[in-house]
Design goal:
The protein is mainly β. Helix content is 6%, strand content 37%.
Length: 103
């Protein structure tokens, strides 16, 4: 049975010790603050695509090294369809949205 995956969390971090970080995706929901837009379908077999407004953790204009990492959840396709695996309606934290696709 085919599996699909989705992003449950994606974090942008700087290289400071300790690092500054911000979850642009939290509980599978995109941040409204950085205007996360899901370009792909929410559950995919090969490639997720998102866009977001770039930002820095510093007020001073300059070039900064940032890292981007995501945690993925895998579900059987039938479980996504039945609602037993994946995003649950109402799970988004404040200032995050599941319906962040502009298709």
């Amino acid at each position: 049975m085919p599996a699909k995956f989705y992003a449950t969390e994606c974090t942008v971090s700087d290289t400071k010790d300790p690092p500054n970080s911000y979850n642009i995706i939290q509980d599978a929901c995109g941040s409204n603050l950085v205007q996360v837009e899901r370009i792909s379908e929410p559950y995919v077999v090969d490639k997720l695509q998102y866009s977001y407004k770039s930002f820095s953790f510093e007020i001073i204009t300059g070039t900064y090294d940032l890292s981007f990492s995501c945690t993925l959840q895998f579900c059987l396709q039938a479980d996504v369809g039945s609602g037993t695996c994946g995003y649950k309606n109402g799970d988004c934290p404040d200032e995050y949205s599941w319906d962040n696709s502009y298709d």
